[in-house]
């Protein structure tokens, strides 16, 4: 069985979605934490007739069905139903419909041994694999590994789905130029994809900027993007997300970059759960080649840890000031407490000038980070171009700051081209298995 599991997990690619069909927010958070290191959990709440086409569109690795017997799903304690047919009827109906419509799609029941009638109902509905939410997260992962191995043995492993790269720019504090860098990076990548020089095709948006840095909305301002559809609203409309909505409702810059900013009222972000935010990112990666996430000055450490954990590359941005270096130490400590370093983190030293003090390679050695780039001090020129409503590459395309960003893009697109399919979830799962 171990060889079968290794084979199944190795052949998985960048498709890393799990769908949980339930209104139960407490269980969704638990499952998201259990499976988060492997992929994104999407929670779907709808009728069976609505869910069937939705699941077919999402092409998940597997579907998790709620047989917990909890009637009041948003109540932390929950209320167990004495009528299993009433409490689990939706899951039973959905399991039978999915088995008929998509017979190769792996199904897993979710419930608690405090309600054994749910496990019995799952078996009667034809779902033999069961995750007990009262057990450990490791046991949940074991179930998932076993189910995927069985799917591979039946020759029903999921078909790979193309996903765009997610690059996170983690500015260690506000005011060090992270949003300026993110805006230039996004616009210049869009130029590469849709026509370098000459007339650009702005109708084909290939790059999205997640403008989540503070102060809020700087990226949208720098790119002159029109529209007010913000991040919190995008999460609320997650189940409506399709290609039409992406290309009509989301704000877009004059150069064709799609921009999703923080809401004007930052308190709205409190209603955004971490797993819904990751689900949004996963959905967006279906429609864009590259997502640039600007987290310059963002303060919610759990959100940062989850987003950087889902990213393909994490670029920590600092300058040479004492305050920024202290913030860099704090940012790394926060990340390490939540996730071990998985090799995705690299360092960018912005506004760099050797006369300012500590050299870039000394900073990299001090914080044990690979040095990705040094970007020169260009505050005067960047402010001058911004005051004209332009980005620096539109005014001075051969400026050294622009040449350095061009080098970053070369490496990014080379990474995208050379990354083999097995670089995604399968590779990570295989490593985990080999450690057992």
TrEMBL record:
Residues the record lists as 4-aspartylphosphate modifications: 83
Q: Could you state a single Gene Ontology molecular function term?
A: ATP hydrolysis activity
Please give the superkingdom of this protein's source: Bacteria
UniProt-listed Gene3D superfamilies: 3.40.50.2300, P-loop containing nucleotide triphosphate hydrolases
Per UniProt, the keywords (alphabetical) are: Phosphoprotein
**PROSITE patterns per the UniProt record, alphabetical:** RESPONSE_REGULATORY
The biological process GO terms on file are:
negative regulation of cell division; phosphorelay signal transduction system
State the name under which the record lists this protein. Answer: Pilus assembly protein CpaE
